[in-house]
Design goal:
- This protein has one helix and eleven strands.
- By secondary structure, it is mainly beta.
- The strands form two sheets. Strands 3, 4, 5, 6, 7, 8, 9, 10 and 11 form a nine-stranded antiparallel β-sheet that branches.
- A hairpin with a 5-residue loop joins strand 7 and strand 8.
- The radius of gyration is 16 Å and the shape is globular.
Length: 144
C-alpha cells in the first residue's frame, strides 16, 4: 500500500488499482495515474484523484445514468491504447462540473474510456454536435 496527502486528507491506495492514462487528460497531459475514491454521499458520482498531483481531483459519473441514448464506441486505435481487444469491455465516464449557481453539467464531448481489465483509460473528443463540454442534466418534470 502507498499513501498520498490530498485535500481529502491522507489516502492509502493499492498501486495495482491505479488507473493509468498513457496520454494524460486533455489539457493535463502530465497527469497519468489516478485512483478512484467513492463519494461520501451515496449516488452515481465518484472522485478520480491524481496520484501524480495530489492537489488535483475531479468528479465523474456514468453518463447513461442521465442520458439513456448516449453511446460511445471505442475506435480500434483507442482499444489499442487501452490494450484491449475488439470484444473486451470498457466503461464510458463523463467529468462532472458544478457551477457557482449549483448547475450540474457533464462533459459529454470529452468522454473517458476505461478498461477494468487493464486499468488503462483515455479521454477522447467526440465530433457529435449534440454533445458539449457542459451539457446540462436533463430537467425532471414533477408530476402533479
Amino acid at each position: 500500500m502507498k499513501k498520498i496527502m490530498t485535500r481529502f486528507g491522507e489516502v492509502e491506495y493499492d498501486p495495482t488499482n491505479v488507473i493509468h492514462f498513457p496520454e494524460g487528460l486533455i489539457g493535463l497531459d502530465q497527469l497519468h495515474d489516478f485512483i478512484v475514491m467513492p463519494n461520501k454521499k451515496e449516488g452515481p458520482l465518484f472522485w478520480m484523484q491524481s496520484v501524480d498531483d495530489p492537489d488535483f481531483a475531479f468528479v465523474v459519473t456514468d453518463p447513461t445514468n442521465f442520458f439513456l441514448d448516449y453511446h460511445v464506441k471505442a475506435a480500434d486505435n483507442e482499444r489499442k491504447k487501452m490494450q484491449i481487444g475488439p470484444d473486451d469491455d470498457y466503461f464510458v465516464l463523463s467529468i462532472v462540473s458544478i457551477s457557482p449557481e449549483k448547475d450540474i453539467t457533464l462533459n459529454l464531448s470529452g468522454p473517458i474510456l476505461y478498461s477494468p481489465a487493464t486499468n488503462r483509460a483515455l479521454q477522447g473528443i467526440l465530433e457529435d454536435s449534440r454533445y458539449d463540454t457542459k451539457t446540462p442534466l436533463p430537467r425532471v418534470e414533477s408530476g402533479k
